[in-house]
Amino acid sequence: MRTRFPIPLLVLAALLTLQALPGANSAGAARRQKAPPPLTYPRVEWRSTQYDNGKLQTEWQVLLKSPEESARNGIFRRYHPNGRLALLGSYRDNEPAGVWSWMDDRGNLLRQARQREDYEDEIKGEETRSPLSIFRTPAGIATAEGQMKADAPHGHWVFYFPNGAPKAEGNFLTGTADGEWNYYHPNGQIDRQMRFVLGVPNGDYRGAYPDGQERERGRFDQGVRAGVWRSWHPNGELKDEGEYAQDRKVGEWRTWSADGKLVRRTLYRDGTLAAELPLPQPVPVKEPVIPDENRLPIPPHLFDENGGKIPRYDEDALQAPPPPLRGKRAPKPAPLSQWENADRADGQQ
């Protein structure tokens, strides 16, 4: 006698069997997984840069108005290598706004300023003076000299190579680079020039080779690269050229070889390589022909009164039939006169 099971139990057993099959759960999860929502504009994103060891260096908010248009808008923070806050400020449509504060790596407030349209209102800042301090190697060779504020460099400082030539010089504000800084090659030529705002690169940047030939030029905006950047080969030929926006490559970038030949064109979108662009094709140059006294020169094409092209007097045109007259009938030959017919008859006899 067979045992009959209720219909609901059979359905439940079938479902359990299907779930036990390999891949059944993953397939069901894939069906249940929702597609990511589409990107909407305008929207706000956080951008950041890191030190070489991976620690956070700078972070800021960006307002994305469209896939192609963005602006720095909102909070801006800069950190010391030890993780303490170095700079706190804000932007509105790519312009500094509100009160900005600068701190040293121990958290002490160095300076505060309220950002106006084209200047700063100083809220807090100070200058102190102390006797000149000189640091030397065990052999007595000076490596750096300047003023100290407590145990931190303050004011103008100069650093030296072992041979006594200047290596770098610029200003500190309680241990933090501030203002113009120059770096030198051992031969005394400028290696690079840049400006700091309380430890943050800001403004024009220039690099050069030991012989003085320019190596790189660009601009920093509160620690991140912005605008057009260019680099050159040691022989002075342009090497790279392109634009940065919020420290990311955008638009077309071009690369040249040391002999001035364009070798690469690339297209970047928000720091990501989007496409390799084609290189322009060279214009073919017709090889000159040795003059030949037995060959007539080839003049340019001429046209008759009906617009027809008159063949040129070259070897091909000499064999070509004359062009037909356009829009007019060819004239009939004139009838021969009687004496012409008589002359022709005499000649045939």
Features:
349 residues; mainly beta; 14-stranded antiparallel beta sheet; 4 helices
How is this structure best described in words?
The chain is mostly beta strands. The chain has helices at 7-20, 24-32, 315-319, 338-348, and strands at residues 43-50, 56-64, 70-79, 85-92, 95-103, 109-115, 120-124, 132-136, 142-149, 152-160, 166-173, 176-184, 190-197, 200-201, 203-208, 214-221, 224-232, 238-245, 248-256, 262-269, 272-277, 302-303, 309-310. It has four helices and 23 strands. Strands 8, 9, 10, 11, 12, 13, 14, 15, 16, 17, 18, 19, 20 and 21 form a 14-stranded antiparallel beta sheet that branches. Strands 1-2-3-4-5-6-7 form a seven-stranded antiparallel beta sheet, with no helix packed on it. A hairpin with a 5-residue loop joins strand 2 and strand 3. The model has no long low-confidence stretch (mean pLDDT 79).
Structural class: mainly beta
Distance between the termini: 137 Å
Radius of gyration: 41 Å
**Largest sheet at a glance?**
14 strands, antiparallel
Give, in order, the helices and strands.
HHEEEEEEEEEEEEEEEEEEEEEEEHH
The average pLDDT is: 79
Percent helix, as a range, is 10-25%
According to DSSP, the number of beta strands is 23
Number of helices: 4
Low-confidence stretches: none
Proportion of strand residues: over 45%
Overall 3D geometry? flat
